[in-house]
Amino acid sequence: MYGKPMTHQPLPDDGLQLLFFCFSDASLRSTRRRRTMPSSWNPLDEEGSKKVCNPAAPYLNVYRDFEGLYISKIFTDENLRSTLSYQPRDDDVFIVSYPKCGTTWMQHIVYNIFRDGTPPGSLLEMMTMAPFLELLGAEGARAMPRPGAIKTHLPFSKQPYSPKTKYIYITRNPYDCCVSFYYHTKGFPPYLFEEGTFDQFFDMFVEGKVDYGDYFDHLLSWYEHRNDDNVLFVTYEQLKKDTPGVVLKIADFLGKEQYGDKMRQHPEIFQKILGAITIESMKKINAEMKNMGQNLLSMPPEAMPEFMKSFRDHMTSHGDKPVKGVILGTIQVLHKMIHTTFCL
């Protein structure tokens, strides 16, 4: 019912064992930082090794340290600064994860719980009701219609925090996370990794030289708060194995009487929510997201004004102008960045 997981090129057995061993034993944190690979893996060729070790390799220059957060230049200093200084409201809900750990699925789940299984009609609506804080900046969260859920990929130490605010943290085993993150990085031109290999990305991943830094540090920072009253800690694997049970748990966390009990008393609403969060149901929004990204990447600078006019006309016909203005500004920044910062 919920669709099959994406099929990726599998890691060699030794690589899989290494990742799970590190995942299950925090005492190996120093071991995984060493630049060593399982003996059964073929080492990178000489040219590939130079690409990883050479600080002048283009894809390594995409990232920088921003106030202790290792992150790419895809995210502007201005929006990151406003993100880190954002003061959460008591009624805020945050969906937090390390990249490629199930964030989008969780966003759809929370969105549909809030709206009794009525899915978003467009990508714009999804971005409006579930703003990506680091990409849009604090204004995206302030302008968000409520109830809504703010998306971040921040470790606990950088997360805008209030004991009265709710946080849903979703994680995923490091094997699937790493492989998915590799394909994401390779497929998004601003990362300058189109020619990169999995061996190179694996090195970057275990050393924390990717967006949001070290997977293990990120996970453990939130794992320490898994029993906090305002934190719900969920794994992608749990969600996939028992989708109805975990969705109900999420609903209770968001508001037992308002959402959880209503779903128990009205099974038709519960089933509508479950139907709206299948892979098939989410395809439309995901396709829109992919097409929008491809349009931005392929569009020459001189074509941008006409695109922005069309997008602005679409937004003004759908209300919610404040947050959509923020999204519009972000698109302009992204396009400028793609054609200047990364010299595409």
Automatic annotation (TrEMBL):
A GO MF term: sulfotransferase activity
Lipoprotein as UniProt keyword: no
Gene3D superfamilies attached to this UniProt entry: P-loop containing nucleotide triphosphate hydrolases
Matching InterPro entries: P-loop_NTPase, Sulfotransferase_dom
Superkingdom of the source species: Eukaryota
Keyword annotations: Transferase
Residue ranges occupied by any Sulfotransferase domain in the UniProt entry: 90-290
Annotated family: Belongs to the sulfotransferase 1 family.
Protein name: Sulfotransferase domain-containing protein
Source organism of this protein record: Haemaphysalis longicornis (Bush tick)
